[in-house]
Amino acid sequence: MSEHIRSTVENGLARLTLNRPEAMNSLSLPMVRTLAEKLGAWEHDPAVRAVVIDSSLPKAFCAGGDIRFFHEVAQGGLTGGSALLEDFFTEEYALNHLIHHYPKPYIALMDGIVMGGGMGIAQSSAAASIRVVTERTRMAMPEVNIGLFPDVGGGYFLSRLPGELGTYLGLSGEIVGAADALYANLADVYVPRTELPALMNLLTSVKDGQYRQAIENFAAPFKSQIDPANSLLARQRALIDRHFAHDEVAAIVASLTSDDDPFAQKTLEILHKRSPLMIHVSLEQIRRSAKLELADCLRLERTMVRRCFEHGETVEGIRALVIDKDNTPQWRPATLKEVTPEMIAPFFESAWPDYAHPLRALN
């Protein structure tokens, strides 16, 4: 059991509180295992009617996976590290699948930073589940910034956002706020963070199992405080849909280059800072994932993440951003134009035969 996960059950409401302040609740392998164990046990426990996941930290829900651990393992600084790295992604993706299909209401209070792996533990498609944002929510799938791709089921949920919003968010890695999250269907309701204690009190008093309705009723008075229709993504929707509708990175770049709109030019500048290889790989992932069910998306991502560490792009990205903090990653190749189809293809060639895939049991 992880010391960084607090769990309680009160009046039918099970609560998981992330509590790793020194790392903004970045997910470690013990944390992933604890979450999976608790959710697995509660799934069939008649004493548990719903689950809420939140954070003890004032500024972060979950900043993603523990990328310092990834780097240490890749550098050979941890005994048995490579096996632990393999275990981490296999178990994290299985956890994402469990949450997505959880049979009981699953309530995510996404107050503060919600990035990467944090998105993975907040996105449930169950009809009764609900995702809550606050004025401090800062949400992103920023993996291309560290030489990775939008994993934890990112290919699945990004490819299903309205228009090309998911393509834009996956390829740019940009951070958005609560209004954007609501507009893009990455969240369901807005509640001011000062009202979260009152919301928790309400949830422990729900007796009819209608948790989603109770939260929607609680959040209704605050709708006027936030305007998804005037969010950044809403204002730039036509531009995003036009430029990111292409299936080739070169076409997206050419489209942005031809547009002198400040947002288009800023977006072009951002793309040129990310890993050129992973921009290409991520676009291919998002397009493929649009035609796949979640289990197949996660199996695909499990192969892709293995290839990322084999290539070394992720290790270099983490080094530049987090370890040395020089923000000058030496991407391979260095530019978007240098990426070839032959470089992209290996990321989609399974590392295992179907019968031996570590996520073969997902359905």
UniProtKB/TrEMBL annotation:
It comes from the Bacteria. Pfam families: ECH_2 (PF16113). InterPro entries: ClpP/crotonase-like_dom_sf (IPR029045), ECH_dom (IPR045004), HIBYL-CoA-H (IPR032259). This is Enoyl-CoA hydratase/isomerase family protein. Keywords: Hydrolase. It comes from Herminiimonas glaciei. The keyword Hydrolase applies. Residues 14-348 form the Enoyl-CoA hydratase/isomerase domain.
